[in-house]
TrEMBL record, chains A, B:
<feature type="domain" description="PurM-like C-terminal">
    <location>
        <begin position="148"/>
        <end position="296"/>
    </location>
</feature>
<protein>
    <recommendedName>
        <fullName>Thiamine-monophosphate kinase</fullName>
        <ecNumber>2.7.4.16</ecNumber>
    </recommendedName>
</protein>
<comment type="pathway">
    <text>Cofactor biosynthesis; thiamine diphosphate biosynthesis; thiamine diphosphate from thiamine phosphate: step 1/1.</text>
</comment>
<keyword id="KW-0808">Transferase</keyword>
<keyword id="KW-0460">Magnesium</keyword>
<feature type="binding site">
    <location>
        <position position="73"/>
    </location>
    <ligand>
        <name>Mg(2+) 2</name>
    </ligand>
</feature>
<feature type="binding site">
    <location>
        <position position="312"/>
    </location>
    <ligand>
        <name>substrate</name>
    </ligand>
</feature>
<feature type="binding site">
    <location>
        <position position="28"/>
    </location>
    <ligand>
        <name>Mg(2+) 3</name>
    </ligand>
</feature>
<feature type="binding site">
    <location>
        <position position="208"/>
    </location>
    <ligand>
        <name>Mg(2+) 5</name>
    </ligand>
</feature>
<feature type="binding site">
    <location>
        <position position="205"/>
    </location>
    <ligand>
        <name>Mg(2+) 3</name>
    </ligand>
</feature>
<dbReference type="InterPro" id="IPR036676">
    <property type="entry name" value="PurM-like_C_sf"/>
</dbReference>
<feature type="region of interest" description="Disordered">
    <location>
        <begin position="300"/>
        <end position="320"/>
    </location>
</feature>
<dbReference type="Pfam" id="PF02769">
    <property type="entry name" value="AIRS_C"/>
</dbReference>
<dbReference type="GO" id="GO:0009229">
    <property type="term" value="P:thiamine diphosphate biosynthetic process"/>
</dbReference>
<feature type="binding site">
    <location>
        <position position="73"/>
    </location>
    <ligand>
        <name>Mg(2+) 3</name>
    </ligand>
</feature>
<feature type="binding site">
    <location>
        <position position="256"/>
    </location>
    <ligand>
        <name>substrate</name>
    </ligand>
</feature>
<keyword id="KW-0067">ATP-binding</keyword>
Length: 320, 320
């Protein structure tokens, strides 16, 4: 790419530093020094324009989101962010776009102490692949396969906001800036994930929506669940813009919130509430793990409810 | 992506295994257990159709090359391949294409004991980003900044073949299958890189061509070099298809060979030859590190020679 080395130099000049980065951007590979006794958590996500974010998304928001969705995966594993790589495919060597993108990407990296240690820039249709590497003391990662019948099911924060913002954008009608902000600037719940080490039994981040993501936990753990729709935490803004059946659909079926969903024995509830209160992040019990298979949603009247299958097409691609 | 989970399942079913993979594809992040006393080498490369390989490249060759260029970076660091992630953006969920791609990718992964531990599949214009993670005992990595005046400059194998294959493809005239094979199926010199631990003082892989890549070593080390064109190792096939000035241009300016270029004190020459002979891989001294800056090529008659600036446009993007 013409100007490629200039782009790389721009990235290198702004990449964060850590003592455990033996060699950063600029050789054939980065050299990193993982601390003894830790496991390395690795997550990889690609963002494509028009698939993972609306075409009118600001470059700084794209940069933020490209890292946020990956940090959210580390949060869901209770891993502390350490390093990352950034592979940028861009139609042309647009330095202004790159600078704005890096503003969003690196501000979030700095906030979480993540050092950008490598990457690649190529010319082509825009695609952004980020790999992040986190550290977790051996055996303490939060996996999907630890949920047991009788445990509580929790979610952090409020859910449905990002889906509401996307639904409004798609409808081209009145739109809430607050909802759109949740879509464009998701907050990865990194500190919450770290606080849940030793408390939660299983966890996942809500990228594809509660029904889909909790479904992965249930399948991995070999259990089922019942969720009470009346308990799903909704922001005031979401409640103002969407009435009840529509709101449930956004909360249960919509993705992109990047809150954490986790399970824990009821005996841990007080400690969890204390830990989340210390982070100023509400967490809510929304249901219960049950024996058997399947995920059932109950209305406040106790009736079974099913998310509309075609009610919402999320922007977050699934990932391995 | 429609069928995305089916694609991921196809990848997961075929990913290799290693004892140090605590948790592979299928959770929010992979969990890996780096051995104590080692540094982690991380490399990231993106391949885009029409930029990094000809449009008519077979899917299995693309899969091979996507991993090979990354393994080559680990080789250049003297790191042993361990794990990798694969981010695939594809225009549609084409299972036949994916199966062929994985044939090439995973055969090479298995050959080098690399386990695929994560990734992402998204819909969009084709782009492939691979991250590889290698292990090297702390302090033993081969970096770019260790070359010292008076040392020999070596290259492994033969160089110029891939550039010759690309030049023939571009000219749409008679083409050698052997040269094209070197372009499509580069062999990462992983074992050579490992054998050079403690022997070489600096190293790089030849992706962008000898002039450009050796230039990076010289800049990082703060030295210059003189290369004798008459010593550049050429395959019989290259010599049959390209006469001398054209061949030099391919060998000095052309990329995509993925041989190693490294420096070493003359006192190590015998050990290096022994080590390379044990791998059945020729290595050749092509010049010498000198004090000062700049890279000079000498013809067999001792005249200074400059690679034609526009003689060759390589397919390998640079990378950070």
């Amino acid at each position: 790419m013409p100007g490629e080395f200039a782009l790389i130099e721009r990235i290198r000049a702004r990449a964060g530093r850590r003592d455990d980065v033996v060699l950063g951007i600029g050789d054939d590979a980065a050299l990193l020094a993982p601390p003894p006794g830790h496991e390395l958590a690795v997550s990889c996500d690609t963002l494509v324009a028009g698939v993972h974010f609306p075409d009118d998304t600001a470059p700084a928001d794209i940069g933020h989101k490209a890292l946020a969705v990956n940090l959210s995966d580390l949060a869901a594993m209770a891993a502390a962010p350490a390093w990352g790589t950034l592979a940028l495919t861009l139609p042309d060597a647009n330095q202004a776009w790159l600078d704005d993108f890096l503003d969003g990407f690196l501000a979030l990296a700095d906030e979480h102490g993540l050092a950008l240690v490598g990457g690649d820039t190529t010319r082509g249709p825009m695609a952004i692949t980020v790999n992040v590497f986190g550290l977790v003391p051996a055996g303490q990662a939060l996996r999907r396969d630890g949920a047991r019948p009788g445990e509580d099911i929790w979610v952090t924060g409020t859910i449905g906001d990002a889906a509401g913002g996307l639904a409004q954008w798609r409808a081209r009608g009145p739109a809430s800036a607050k909802l759109r902000h949740r879509l464009d600037r998701p907050t990865p719940r990194v500190q919450a994930g770290l606080a849940l080490r030793g408390l939660a039994s299983a966890g996942i981040d809500l990228s594809d929506g509660l029904a889909a993501d909790l479904g992965h936990v249930l399948a991995a753990s070999g259990v089922g669940a019942r969720i009470e729709l009346g308990r799903l935490p909704a922001s005031r803004t979401l409640a103002d813009h969407f009435d009840e059946p529509r709101r449930w659909a956004l909360q249960a079926g919509g993705g992109d919130d990047y809150e954490l969903c986790f399970t824990a024995p009821a005996s841990r509830a007080f400690e969890i509430e204390q830990a989340m209160a210390a982070l100023d992040l509400p967490a809510t019990v929304v249901g219960r793990v049950v024996a058997g298979a399947g995920l059932r949603f109950d209305t406040p009247e106790g009736e079974a409810w099913t998310p509309p299958a075609d009610g919402y097409q999320h922007f977050s691609g699934g990932h391995a």
